[in-house]
Amino acid sequence: MDFSSSMAIKPSSSSCSSLFAISRTQNSRPKPLLFNFHGIPRNHQNSFFKSLKCIQSPPPGSLPSNPTSFSCSAVTLSPTQTSYLPPRKLSTLVAEFQSLLEPLDRVKRLLHYASLLPPLPASSRTDSNRVMGCTARVWLDAQMDSEGNIRFWADSDSEITKGFCACLVSVLDGAGPEEVLQLKTEDLAALNVGLPGGERSRVNTWHNVLISMQKRTRALVAQKERKTPFEPFPSLVITAEGIQPKGTYAEAQARYLSPDKLKVKELVHVLKEKQIGVVAHFYMDPEVQGILTAAQKEWPHIHISDSLVMADSAVKMVKSGCKFITVLGVDFMSENVRAILDQAGFGE
């Protein structure tokens, strides 16, 4: 029986994720790839890849005398020659899953790869390493090695999601930052892993884990180049002591939720003194919107809405005794309010 095998391995002086694929001419059922995740501690240096091609070719018409004997040729690749590896790994992975026609078989293969992914240390199972947006809990850790390549570690409390992580780690672990950032979600669509009815969840998992890997890569590159760190994922941490925003968007949200009390007091004083009504479009600076919302409690003639109802609100304010109307929005909004006030008989 003739068969050939090819694998990309790394010498024992460094850690890597290896790919080993076997194809048999007498058996159409695909064999799973064998992933070797992080065989060496993460603090060891990388060196170079070796590509091995092993072929067993018995004489025609006879069986091999030693089924385990192989003739091997090895080629040492320079670092610049290894850039093809992530695309090749992904192509091999896609071909494997496409050869499995039944969705259940793909899921079984995914579970097999999940069993090969080493468990993530408890020290890495932190909130800062969580991958947001996945149905299951997913953790992702990343570091840049001494050669500038990115090393990934991942885990999940869902075996299927863990299988997704295993596939992505096997493809991108040890790749350069450019290679990690070049991979697109569309490149993973051909894998089409999942049971009927769960496709959207599976696609989201691929997308969220990949995006997290790329965000971590950008942050590591920025750290190496001593650049300003990237914006954190926008979030509001609410505790008994108050609100702690993370990211500029979250900071804007916090300003809306906790407006400046002095500015609110000053605004209410001016509006009451001069009998001013305010109609504002809801697309505005969150800090301004927060102050207006807080001022509404003391001065009811403040209305935040869509442009279609701003003019009607202005008419009601005038009828309630407001002498002036302030419009917060673009030009056509103030023109529309002016026209509706004129039509209602409030020309002054």
Automatic annotation (TrEMBL):
Main subcellular location: plastid
One GO biological process term: iron-sulfur cluster assembly
SUPFAM superfamilies (alphabetical): NadA-like (SSF142754), SufE/NifU (SSF82649)
InterPro entries listed in its UniProt record: Fe-S_metab-assoc_dom, NadA, NadA_sf
Gene3D superfamilies: 3.90.1010.10, NadA-like (3.40.50.10800)
Pfam family, one: NadA
GO cellular component terms listed in the entry, alphabetical order: chloroplast
UniProt keywords, alphabetically: Chloroplast, Plastid
Molecular function GO labels: 4 iron, 4 sulfur cluster binding; enzyme activator activity; quinolinate synthetase A activity
Subcellular locations according to the entry: Plastid, Chloroplast
Protein name per Swiss-Prot or TrEMBL: Fe-S metabolism associated domain-containing protein
Ranges for domain Fe-S metabolism associated: 95-215
Residue spans crossing the bilayer: none
